[in-house]
Amino acid sequence: QVQLVESGGGLVQPGGSLRLSCAVSGTIFRVYAMGWYRQAPGKQRELVATITSGGSTNYTDSVKGRFTISRDNAKNTVYLQMNSLKPEDTAVYYCNVPLRVGAALPWGQGTQVTVSL
User: What single DSSP character describes residue 116?
Assistant: First the structure.
């Protein structure tokens, strides 16, 4: 049974940093591209960053230059380093295997990121 467990969220002031982690169990992690998504209150979930099995990365424009996605295949874990955080980054963050539409795996519980004074 595949399980996604996100962690590392919290309350941070604007301009601050957080590092999110997503532990993946129950599947061959290293062969999959992975993505970080977020869902703000009243908004649809959006894909913000992806990393292929080979380590190529891609970001949505709003986080380029501030967020960095990485992975450790030995630990079955994907990370999201978030710097220069803004209030508009406030959301619940999730990881998953991205598809052309939607995502491949059951969603985890997510981790709340709140950027506020």
Answer: -
